[in-house]
Write a structure and sequence with these properties.
By secondary structure, this protein is of the alpha/beta class. It has helices at 52-63, 75-84, 97-111, 135-162, 184-204, 228-234, 241-253, and strands spanning 43-47, 67-72, 88-91, 116-119, 166-171, 209-216, 260-263, 270-271. An eight-stranded mixed sheet has the order 3-2-1-4-5-6-7-8, sandwiched between helices.
Length: 281
């Protein structure tokens, strides 16, 4: 559930410099990566799981034997997909901390624990800071895109620790890696998610918990409907959902933490290479 209409080249490529903590060695369980003996029987919570990227990832995980808990405000689609995947649905407004806590508890009560939290709920804002600025819409976007990730991480950490480790993946965006003058609030939201993930990665790796970000360009989701005509006019390619799902699975199969994986048309997905800041002399 993310979109990015700007260039994706600047600074991208290679492995992420200064990766946080290297390998998550010494895990006692909970790893959702394929190298840890497969994913069958693991438990995943997906916010924004009723549609778009969240639904596509849920289907892929369920195909690999993962129990999925879909958390969304879209009850009709969420319940239908949960039934299709033999999973669970919980209504969750990520702006409310109690809703994220209840979603995690649903995973624990229904399937016995939590191994993966995919914090994917998000919205575009569609306005600037000039005459079109809308404080109410601004707070809504900030609360869903940033607070929703903060509350989701806070709720998931105890359950992941109880399993001996696991994964948290937050959906950011290419808009979090480059300037987005067309939607500055959205860009600021996603940059905040990237910054949060980079800070959380090394902080929680000692507990066997990997925190990373998924940063897609324009993906084939409802969020791009208002801008689809302009994208087509500019000849900007739209990412198939399958490409985003493959990048997500690559994050799970990796060993890094605090990384922001870009997903752009025509390039293999990998962690964005951040330049180090100048140090004192």
């Amino acid at each position: 559930m993310t979109a990015f209409p700007g260039p994706a080249d600047s600074g991208a490529g290679g492995r992420a410099g200064g990766r946080a903590g290297g390998r998550a060695g010494g895990r006692t369980g909970g790893r959702t990566g394929g190298r840890a003996g497969g994913r069958t029987g693991r438990v995943a919570l997906i916010t924004g799981g009723a549609n778009g990227i969240g639904a596509a990832v849920a289907r892929r995980l369920a195909d690999e034997g993962v129990h999925v808990v879909l958390a969304d405000v879209d009850e009709d689609h969420g319940r239908a997909l949960a039934e299709e995947l033999d999973g669970a649905f919980v209504r969750c407004d990520v702006r409310e901390p109690a809703d994220s806590a209840r979603a995690v508890q649903t995973a624990v009560d229904r399937f016995g624990g939590l191994d993966l939290a995919f914090l994917n709920a998000g919205v575009a804002s569609g306005f600037g800071l000039g005459d079109d600025f809308d404080p109410e819409r601004h707070r809504r976007a900030m609360s869903i895109n940033v607070d929703g990730v903060v509350y989701g991480v806070h709720a998931a950490l105890p359950a992941l620790r109880a399993r001996g480790g696991g994964d948290i993946v937050a959906t950011a965006s290419m808009a979090g890696l480059t300037a987005t003058p067309f939607d500055p609030v959205y860009g600021a939201n996603k940059a905040a998610v990237v910054g949060l993930v980079r800070a959380l990665g090394p902080a929680h790796l000692p507990d066997g918990i990997r925190v990373n970000a998924l940063c897609p360009s324009f993906a084939e989701t409802d969020i791009i409907i208002p801008m689809r005509d302009e994208l087509e006019r500019q000849g900007f390619p739209v990412l198939p959902l399958a490409d985003v799902v493959e990048a997500f699975m690559a994050i799970l199969d990796g060993d890094g933490a605090g990384e922001a994986w870009y997903v752009v048309p025509g390039r293999p997905s990998e962690p964005f290479r951040f330049r180090g800041v100048p140090g004192p002399r």
